[in-house]
Design a protein that fits this description.
Layout lengths: L3 H10 L3 E3 L3 E4 L26 E6 L19 E3 L7 E3 H8 L1 H4 L1 H7 L4 E6 L8 E3 L2 H5 L8 E4 L13 E4 L7 H9 L13 E4 L5 E4 L5 E2 L5 E6 L4 E3 L3 E2 L2 E2 L3 H4 L10 H6 L3 H4 L4 H5 E2 L2 E2 L7 E7 L6 E7 L4 E4 L5 E7 L1 E4 L2 E4 L13 E4 L1 H6 L1 E5 L6 E7 L8
Antiparallel strand pairs: 1-25, 2-3, 3-6, 4-5, 6-13, 7-14, 8-11, 8-13, 9-10, 9-12, 11-17, 15-16, 18-19, 19-20, 20-27, 21-26, 22-25, 22-27, 23-24, 23-26
InterPro entries: RmlC-like_jellyroll, RmlC_Cupin_sf
Protein name: Mannose-6-phosphate isomerase
Length: about 400
């Protein structure tokens, strides 16, 4: 546990805005999209046995479920107590020590922790068709459910990857028996289950909300994903772009006596949502410009319309100083430009070495957010663009 005095001193000295270290996460499957602004030599910084680095996590108080080779703090955010982060402590420790002073009374009393995190998801190839469990199913394996949202930032998508199309759910005319038959073929050959789904071409600058129980196959675009504090899924597609996924990917989050029970595996789906004939109308999330935007800055809701998570995109015009107020604590990452946020210098990452400190990620306490964060864009030419991730308690979320 970090020294309590270091946590309090860091919080006070930085006026309630904490600077976080970059957190890069490898995955053992698929191919890296190489859009994380990580040095080209560092995508295998943890060795080939761990797979290439394909994600960056933000404001995380939970570890990645990444197998027995992963260290216990993989995926967890650290707060830098000094410029080079030679002194640092977990964001989780800061939440435990500061409580409502950091994340607000409402979140702390209801959840006892910061309840969400965000990530950059960066795959060159599409991901398998899979779902995330709801709370009831996840509780049977000691976990919690996982709703998540997507936003496709133009600043981080210099290329669109091999397959910039996302599948959601199953076609309204598909029957449960058809899906069941494909899942029973999981170990027999390519089950080609996305033949039963619906695909949507990815549009940069927009996003989606994905409830638990909805099967989805994310396309090959770097995606900003605000999500609940969980990492629990069931994979319906067994071969993607020639890569074979073992049966364990389908059943790893099932109770031991249900791993071969196809009816139980089918029950993890929310069938009505998967076959919703108005899926895009209900779950597509075009950006919504906030009414307080003006000639100095533009703020947009990019994740909204659910009871778990919210996110905004904030753009500050060149040479402007603004005060930005929010009703709730949030994590944020700067993806374009440079300047200042509160007492901190801030600059978007261009090319980071693995383990290097950066000036692009912060956590803003609820008191600081409500008082108003002073942000200055020091550029004469480029805007500053922040992505901001919230829990469920922002009073203005649509």
């Amino acid at each position: 546990m970090a020294q309590n005095s270091v946590i309090h001193e860091t919080y006070e000295r930085n006026q309630g805005i904490l600077r976080l270290k970059p957190v890069f996460v490898p995955r053992r499957f698929a191919k890296a999209g190489r859009r994380l602004r990580l040095h080209p030599d560092d995508y295998y910084a943890l060795g080939t046995v761990r797979g290439s680095i394909k994600e960056r996590w933000f404001a995380s108080v939970i570890p990645a479920m990444n197998g027995p080779l992963a260290p216990p703090d993989e995926g967890m955010s650290y707060v830098a107590a000094d410029d080079d982060a030679s002194t640092a402590f977990l964001l989780k420790e800061a939440v435990e020590e500061l409580g409502a002073k950091l994340i607000g009374k409402q979140l702390y009393e209801k959840y006892g922790t910061w309840p969400m995190y965000a990530k950059f998801f960066d795959f060159e190839t599409p991901l398998f068709h899979h779902l995330h469990l709801n709370d009831a199913a996840a509780s049977l394996v000691g976990r919690i459910g996982k709703p998540e949202a997507y936003y496709f930032p133009p600043q981080l998508n210099n290329h669109m990857g091999a397959f910039p199309v996302t599948y959601f759910g199953y076609d309204p005319d598909v029957t449960r028996e058809e899906v069941r038959e494909r899942l029973l073929r999981y170990e027999d050959g390519d089950n080609r289950i996305t033949e039963l789904s619906r695909a949507y071409r990815i549009e940069l600058g927009t996003g989606w909300y994905t409830p638990p129980g909805v099967v989805h196959a994310p396309g090959s675009v770097l995606t900003y994903e605000p999500q609940w504090n969980s990492d629990v899924n069931s994979v319906h597609e067994n071969i993607v772009m020639g890569e074979v996924y073992p049966y364990d990917f389908l059943a790893e989050n099932c109770p031991a006596d249900s791993k071969r029970d196809i009816e139980y595996i089918m029950s993890l789906m929310d069938w009505d949502k998967n076959t919703d004939p108005h899926y895009k109308k209900n779950y597509f999330r075009p950006p919504l410009v906030c009414a307080h935007s003006n000639e100095q800055f533009t703020e947009k809701w990019i994740t909204y319309g659910n009871e778990y998570i919210g996110a905004k995109e904030l753009t500050i015009e060149p040479g402007q100083t603004v005060i930005i107020r929010d009703s709730a604590a949030y994590g944020t990452v700067l993806i374009q430009g440079h300047g200042r946020i509160g007492v901190h210098q801030a600059e978007a990452a261009v090319m980071l070495r693995f383990g290097q400190m950066s000036g692009d990620e912060f956590f803003v306490s609820e008191p600081a957010a409500q008082e108003g964060v002073v942000i200055t864009n020091d550029s004469k030419w480029e805007p500053m663009v922040f992505l901001k991730h919230f829990g469920p308690n922002h009073t203005e979320m649509p």
